[in-house]
UniProtKB/TrEMBL annotation:
EC number, as in UniProt: 4.3.1.17
Annotated organism of origin: Algoriphagus limi
Keyword annotations from UniProtKB, A to Z: 4Fe-4S, Gluconeogenesis, Iron, Iron-sulfur, Lyase, Metal-binding
Protein's UniProt keywords contain Metal-binding: yes
Domain (Serine dehydratase-like alpha subunit): residue spans on this chain: 242-500
Record's catalysed reaction(s): L-serine = pyruvate + NH4(+)
PANTHER family attached to this UniProt entry: L-SERINE DEHYDRATASE, L-SERINE DEHYDRATASE 1
Protein's name according to its UniProt entry: L-serine ammonia-lyase
GO MF assignments: L-serine ammonia-lyase activity
Claim: Transmembrane helix is one of the keywords in the record: no
InterPro entries attached to this UniProt entry: ASB_dom_sf, Fe-S_L-Ser, Ser_deHydtase-like_asu
Enzyme type, top EC level: lyase
Pathway(s) served: Carbohydrate biosynthesis; gluconeogenesis
Family assignment from sequence similarity: Belongs to the iron-sulfur dependent L-serine dehydratase family.
Amino acid sequence: MSYPSIFNDVVGPVMRGPSSSHCAASLRIGRICHDLMDGKISKIEIDFDPDGSLATTHKDQGSDMGLFGGFLGWEAYDERLVDSEIHLKGAGIAYTIRIVELENKHPNAYQITLSNPWESHRLVAISTGGGMIELVEIDGANVSLAGDRFMTLVYTDLPIQVMNYLEQAGDWDSLELLSGNSKMVLLTAQAPIDSILKEELAQIEGVKMIKEIRPVLPVLSSKNTQVPFITVEEMLAYNQDKNLSLWQLAARYESMRGDFSEEEVFAKMEEIRLILKNAVETGLKGTQFEDRILGPQSVKFKSMMEEKRLVDGDVLNRIIMYVSAIMEVKSSMGVIVAAPTAGSCGAMPGAVLGVADSLGLSEEETVKALLIAGLIGVFIASHSTFAAEVGGCQAECGSGATMAAASLVYLGGGNLNQSLSAASMALQSSLGMICDPIGNRVEAPCLNRNVMAASNSLSCANMALADYDALIPLDEVIETMYEVGKSIPNTLRCTNLGGLSITKTAKEIEQRLVQKQFFKSC
């Protein structure tokens, strides 16, 4: 079983762009393509299914931009991303995008064919939410790879000979024979294979080529990966004789999952806190970006708040201001953390940082609260989804509210059970939320819903501190969210085909944006 990592699946990636499901995930898929071709690509064919989300959103929500950056070998936070198409053409790489029936019917499925004068490869991958991916096919062979290990593909006419050699050469995470359009041996490991071993492999009779693909996730997995628990119920049983706080349990989980110390876990989250803080500060200075719907609204909100011209509510108003600032940085192609997704990147961080600053709490306490949010996210990632294309906005903003609510209870001095109660109530309050971006951009009503999610988290935290009864355990609410998501029509799951997306005004906004892009390109 593959266990989620706080820093892979929940609080991350560090990225630019409107959508982690589209931008960050597509870039990671593109990075795998880059390595599969040894960085030497001449022509690319990109196929999307007409019934999937990407058929109608791939350009406006950043899938194209992310793919192009990945094909060039870039990181998700590269400042050149907004011009990645120009750079792709400058590298002499031709591409076509087709809307065709795919065998893989996941709403975020990518089928990509890559070629140069001497070789051609095809892969199929899916974006699973929050920037996470799964590679499901390479050159006709079925696989299940998350990009969390070093991968080596040996194309050979004599696979058994290669398998026998590799079995003797080292202790690998996995070693398997693949049979698709070509015969291949797939090796995964915690490090790239030794250069001498690679040279020896190349000399084996029947070996045609060797491909090395680097990990695209920051925290690696191995065959020996273990975690102390994977549900809330298991966590409570694990903690029965330990009496650890929720943030300590988060550090324990990630330490075991990633095979590094709890001090290193804390340090990694401190790095995330600094990026989040910088996003708030950047947003409040005002952001500019041509291809967007909403301007820098948080600047005026800050001014009116400081002048006491808003309805009084210091903590809530600070949260609204922080959420808005982070969302505006995202929409202006600034650096943000997808926590848990780019579309919901303001809710949890805005709530946690806003409450911590309002209460005058230390940076250390803020990091602890972020760890708690990450752990709650692990439970969601394990048993539901963060992808709006799969579960609607409840999977994004609903998850953000759930993570934040547990954290705010901690910042308010509450206990572990109260945090879990707050998380349950917050997710219960979010069930059924649809995803219907206006103008095919991840800006509105996304901003409103991030603010609503953060406000929901504050309300549920205070209710839990007052010992309101959530009734339904968090594990059961998470499972319910997944089932509800499957019941939401695909027109209301980030496809630009329903809800506010198809109102008269939304279509007028979308058309204006298209015309603006056209004249800019002329």
